[in-house]
Specification:
This protein is α/β, with parallel strands linked by helices. Helices cover about 35% and strands about 15% of the residues. Helix 3 runs parallel beside helix 9 and helix 4 packs parallel to helix 5. It binds pyridoxal-5'-phosphate.
Length: about 400
């Protein structure tokens, strides 16, 4: 183990203030430009960002629309796909609950699929057991920055004529077999929540899609269903990415690849230093994982989290402690503990360690030294051997 850099006394989970200071000049310029423009909604900043983001994803047809949040991105994509009350949507319970909120808002029913125990993303092998005649859409959630096995999802979807909506909120820039998240399914939904790999300074989201019809429909849906001013061709909502956030995102987009590389470097160092102490994240074959979160698994999760906070001033979080099917809001679906064994097993063991683009390797070394100390203090060796892929 590397020696603890003596100057480090604490590590926060993220540091958005430092991030702003690092990019202050470009961010201030972007904001000033919008303030002085006199145009704040649906203007040229949004047009420019949508084009740049499409290019970043590798979508030559440039079918990307900005919207108000990642939750709305999922909701709007489901509406564009024609989802209505009574339809069923295949989705994991091991996700940020907003994925489920967006499904329920359409009136559709989420049907929960279990995860792969090593990567903790959707297990395509569980789709067959959960499909019914009412199933309309599959939502593969590219959790923690790693994509779902999309070959299997796409072939299942093709066989059963289902729409595929990728939840890319945690996976901006991730790839699977060289294809960027959000370009494989029919739709991709992105979140620009401030702490995501590409974050706004407020709320924001985007939808990518692969057909002109869906693109035209999404443009109307996010703007009261208007085709042109005062002509409302469809139902619609108010969900737009404002000019200020679009300008802020455009200013940062050129750095995202570099930030993702940095996250991968930090993750590799974490894994090197922790692999004998805990279960470290698995990067599946054909994947470029962008480590939105660095998530370990350990039997002593609660003890470790508390100890890190109290004894080492390291902030570690849990994504997510209660799977969606066990949340009070979704009790009406009638799924009890035991329904998703791999999801529930993981939920009791996962711990997210600090991970952000401005973090230093010394900070990773400090955290790993502290985790080693925790393991030694508690006489724990190779916690990892008790967990992992077999449930
Ligand atoms: C953040 C997140 C969302 C919601 O995005 P918001 O912009 O906060 O609405 C949805 N799904 C996943 C997996 C997320 O991480």
């Amino acid at each position: 183990m590397t020696t603890t850099p003596a100057s480090i006394k604490s590590v926060p989970f993220g540091d958005l203030k430092a991030h702003y200071q690092q990019y202050k000049d470009t961010l201030d310029q972007a904001v000033s430009r919008v303030l002085a423009s006199g145009h704040y909604i649906l203007g040229k900043e949004l047009d420019a960002f949508e084009d740049q983001f499409a290019e970043f994803l590798g979508l030559p047809e440039k079918r990307v629309i900005g919207c108000a949040s990642g939750t709305d991105a999922i909701y709007l994509a489901l509406l564009a796909a024609g989802v209505k009350s009574g339809d069923e949507i295949l989705v994991v319970a091991h996700t940020a609950v907003p994925t489920i909120c967006a499904v329920v808002k359409t009136g559709a029913t989420p049907v929960f699929v279990d995860v792969c125990p090593d990567t903790l993303v959707m297990d395509p092998a569980d789709l067959e057991a959960k499909i019914t005649s009412k199933t309309k859409v599959i939502i593969p959630v590219h959790l923690y920055g790693q994509m779902v096995d999309m070959d299997q999802v796409m072939s299942f979807a093709a066989k059963h004529k289902l729409v595929v909506l990728e939840d890319c909120a945690q996976a901006t820039g991730a790839t699977y077999k060289g294809k960027t998240a959000g370009t494989i399914g029919d739709y991709g939904a992105f979140s620009f929540y401030p702490s995501k790999n590409l974050g706004a300074f407020g709320d924001g989201g985007a939808v990518s899609c692969n057909s002109q019809k869906a693109y035209e429909s999404l443009k109307m849906l996010r703007n009261y269903g208007q085709s042109k001013r005062y002509y409302h061709d469809e139902f619609g909502v108010n969900s737009r990415l404002d000019e200020m956030q679009a300008a802020i995102l455009s200013a940062q987009l050129p750095y995202v690849k570099e930030w993702n590389e940095k996250r991968r470097k930090l993750a590799a160092l974490y894994t090197l230093l922790l692999k004998d102490l805990v279960v470290t994240p698995v990067e599946a074959k054909d994947n470029y994982h962008v480590y939105h979160l660095y998530v370990i698994q350990t039997e002593k999760r609660e003890e470790m989290r508390t100890w890190l906070e109290e004894k080492a001033s390291v902030q570690a979080l849990i994504h997510y402690p209660i799977p969606a099917h066990l949340q009070k809001a979704y009790a009406y679906l009638g799924k009890k503990k035991g329904f998703l064994p791999k999801t529930e097993y993981a939920a009791d063991r996962i711990l997210s360690l600090p991970m952000y683009q401005g973090m230093t390797e010394s900070e990773v070394e400090y955290i790993c030294a502290k985790i080693k100390e925790f393991c030694q203090t508690n006489n724990i060796s190779k916690l990892g051997s008790q967990t992992g892929s077999k449930v």
